[in-house]
Amino acid sequence: QEPFVADEYIERLAWRTPGGGSRGGEAFDPKRLLEEFVNHIQELQVMDERIQRKVEKLEQQCQKEAKEFAKKVQELQKSNQVAFQHFQELDEHISYVATKVCHLGDQLEGVNTPRQRAVEAQKLMKYFNEFLDGELKSDVFTNSEKIKEAADIIQKLHLIAQELPFDRFSEVKSKIASKYHDLECQLIQEFTSAQRRGEISRMREVAAVLLHFKGYSHCVDVYIKQCQEGAFLRNDVFEDAAILCQRVNKQVGEIFSNPETVLAKLIQNIFEVKLQSYVKDQLEEHRKSDAEQYLKNLYDLYSRTTNLSSKLMEFNLGTDKQTFLSKLIKAIFISYLENYIEVEIGYLKSRSAMILQRYYDSKNHQKRSIGTGGIQDLKERLRQRTNLPLGPSIDTHGETFLSQEVVVNLLQETKQAFERCHRLSDPSDLPKNAFRIFSMLVEFLCTEHIDYALETGLAGIPSSDSKNANLYFLDVVHQANTIFHLFDKQFNDHLMPLISSSPKLSECLQKKKDIIEQMEVKLDMGIDRTLNCMIGQMKHILAAEQKKTDFKPEDENNVLIQYTNACVKVCGYVRKQVEKIRNSMDGKNVDTVLMELGVRFHRLIYEHLQQYSYSCMGGMLAICDVAEYRKCAKDFKIALVLQLFDTLHALCNLLVVAPDNLKQVCSGEQLANLDKNILHSFVQLRVDYRSARLARHFS
């Protein structure tokens, strides 16, 4: 049996043989194992011989059956060849008979066709004679039930009459024409009645007869007119039109031989009559009086019309139904779309101005002119270079003159304008129109609102030497930052899809970049002046609260305070400003501004400490103050600022260290890299500096 492994087979045989192994304490007997192997080999040889005989027998049987099968296949091939020859003979015979039958049919048709034409001509001559005599006696003309046959005859007579000379057959031609017209009217009337009764089969019969008449188009017009009776009873003309076309599409194929033409004519009639009239009524009412409602109605009506067109695309309207429906829509809206963007820009301009004015009125604020021209440009350049306030400071009373509500309203108006622009603009004009809308947004949101607030905020920043100054510019920064995120989101979400594949993209990106850079300059300037004011406030606190006796007390043994009052107030003020900066900004801007404030804060404290002389206990108090300043600096979470205060704290140790240890302290890790003049300047602040011993140790 497969899989066969010889080693395993031998192992199993040895294991079954008594004395074949030592497992279980049984003694190993090689003779018995050899005897067992010999016997087993003999059994395998016998089995092999038996199987070999069986294989030879099967091979002989297989060869015999193969010969018999080959013989049988040869006999079947011969039979097949005989059958194929018979089939070819039969096929040739059938072809011969078919040729004879076709020839006979052609001969019969050649005889029968002239005969039928002669009979038809004889009948027409008979009916023509009745018109010549002026009396129609045939049953086909008098029996109303045979109107179909009469129509066929009169249609043929009408064609014949057109070939006859007018001077000899004028009377009979007029009679045939009159009968032609009467039958045509009867058929149309019959079609109308059948339509009202809902008899589709009768309508189909009459339409088939009228197909060869000149009045067939009138029949289609009647059908279209009656289809619309009672179809437009609701307020939604677009939904009614879709339902009507759906119903007619199922029916028209059962009645007319050219259903796509009839359905297309129905749709054309709906667009040119019902929809055009409805659109005109809705738009003309507000076109000159209410631009907002006019634009909303135009967008809504155009959208609903294009949606209806999309539904109608499902129907068979001929070869180029897309172009057909587009022309119908264009015919309705062309007079409104030609000047759409001018109306849009005019409305957006007036609406944005009104939103801003309403906001400033609510604040009782008369918007002041920022001004342009030579003097203002000169002031702006000077301010950017010197960072000095030019002109009197304006008290804004804490008002930022930025409003998220105003911004949301402006962005919402612009968003709706972008949506209308996308829908109503011609594809070739879309990028240009979108850029004009974007320019309006930049003008009113960025220039008239944000930029004005920044200018007002800059003018409201007090000078750095003002006492108890209220600093509101960081609130302006915070709100301006939030507003610009909203502005950027609208730029990406609503403007980019409209201009992404046009040359206007680079123009829009450049315009956005310019306005950002312009605002960043003013924000940087305002933040810098605000930081100056913060440092000025700290100077006032230090000047008012710090006394010379703080660091050179009269009684060295009776100092009860841990740090000076000036230090407490400055740290309290700094912590408030740090929190305000964190709340006003985001991202890397927070670290950048805090680092700048921290550096200036350190410089202020460094210069402040240089103004005093320090006794031993005063030096200890200075160290305590600097330790408190360093604790305050940790709130900045800026490594550089903390490092500066660590160094300052190490410098303050020079105020109290024993003279013998000065050189060792100066060569310490934190002070080793400092300039020797800086170290010297701090040592000079000690009251005992002039003692020969100290001067000798430091020299």
UniProtKB/TrEMBL annotation:
Keyword Transport in record: yes
Domain Exocyst complex component Sec10-like alpha-helical bundle: 149-698
Record keywords: Coiled coil, Exocytosis, Transport
Origin: domain of life: Eukaryota
Cited PANTHER family: EXOCYST COMPLEX COMPONENT 5, SEC10
Family according to the record: Belongs to the SEC10 family.
Record protein name field: Exocyst complex component 5
